[in-house]
Amino acid sequence: MAEQKKTPATVNTIQRVSWAYFVLLVVVAPVAIAVLVYRVDEFDPAPLPDHGLSRVTVEVPKHNNRVLDAAERVGDGLLHGPEDLAYDAESGIIYTGCSDGWIKQVTVKDSAEQTRVENWVYVGGRPLGLAFGPDKQLIVAESYKGLLKVNREGLVELLTDEADGVKFRLTDGVDVANDGMIYFTDASYKYDLDHHMLDILEGRPYGRLMSFDPSTNQTQILVRHLYFANGVALSPDQSFLVFCETPRRRCSKYHIKGERKGSVDNFIDNLPGFPDNIRYDGDGHFWIALPSAKTLSWDVVLRYPYVRKTMAILSKYMHLPNIQRDGGVLAVNLEGKAVALYSDPSLSMVSGGLKIGKYLYYGNLENAHFTRINLTRHAASASS
Ligand SMILES: *[C@@H]1O[C@H](CO)[C@@H](O)[C@H](O)[C@H]1NC(C)=O
Ligand SMILES: *[C@@H]1O[C@H](CO)[C@@H](O)[C@H](O)[C@H]1NC(C)=O
């Protein structure tokens, strides 16, 4: 007290004023600006339907959770984000769509070093889903342009890019029935691939499942209001197809034939991760790629719209941290029962899973290779 008396009152006031300025500048102003930015920003996320917030995860009887220890890299440095894989058994060639706009041909051998990678056709944009038609034409879901057909000679043709007057923004998954009918998804008619995270953060169903009939050139909407509609795969008897909705951790069954024709049932939900592409292996199992496991971060993000809004605003100014982890591929039987999961804590962005012979191949959105494991040697075992 005695000390303070000695201090001239003016100095004391100046100190207080500068301290107040300091608090204002460092604490109050940024918070006020943040609140203002938050309130003014028009991004308006919606709560997800209750089911999407389920904390439950389906029981998976067998698990190999260290697949990277066993994995071989295929085409290292030559493949840029090989998203989906399609196999031509006759030639033994795997086709994959890369982020440089090329469809590449990969001739795989038992020794990964003998693998040959060749540029096949440049389609541009960002090819995602790939599937062969009965006539061996390759159907490509090119995220920006729409549904493409590449014939044997490598000629590219646009099949369709809109339905009911609404353009596709993010053509994503595709499969072709034995009768030639093409089934595919547009993940979002609002956000393109560069902004796909905003679709997930907004939490509204802008996705559609559609068919394209090459004999009539008709595009038909089969199911609307889907949450980031992703992979598509036909059942072996062609009576139904399975399609995946990424943020809802589920895949549904669309009946193509029979008395339930045109209706949708649950196929598998409460997946251990967020589904991307799905492929049938010709041997009783669908393989569902999971770019990321369900994690605490994802639970929080999906549960709270204000967290998603904050993330959307931050994404304008910075690169959001990658919260994908523990990705893998899940094998599911024809009844929609989970059979085995092949994952790794360090795997992320796994976009496709394709079983060819004894190998499981992993497509990936970002790596410069795809990965494979020998399923005989590294089989999943009963989870303890
Ligand atoms: C479908 O479109 C292709 C390419 O534009 C055209 O060659 C073909 O005649 C069309 N088929 C029908 C049935 O309209
Ligand atoms: C896969 O692993 C099994 C068991 O170790 C082995 O016998 C087989 O040769 C391997 N397959 C290939 C194609 O390398």
Automatic annotation (TrEMBL):
GO cellular component: vacuole
Keywords, in A-Z order: Glycoprotein, Membrane, Phosphoprotein, Signal, Transmembrane, Transmembrane helix, Vacuole
Entry's Gene Ontology BP terms: response to jasmonic acid
Keyword set includes Transmembrane: yes
A Pfam entry, by short name: Str_synth
Stretches that traverse the bilayer: 21-40
Cell compartments where the protein resides: Vacuole
The keyword Signal is annotated on this UniProt entry: yes
Domain Strictosidine synthase conserved region residue range list: 172-259
Sequence similarity: Belongs to the strictosidine synthase family.
The protein's name in its UniProt record: Strictosidine synthase conserved region domain-containing protein
Organism: Nelumbo nucifera
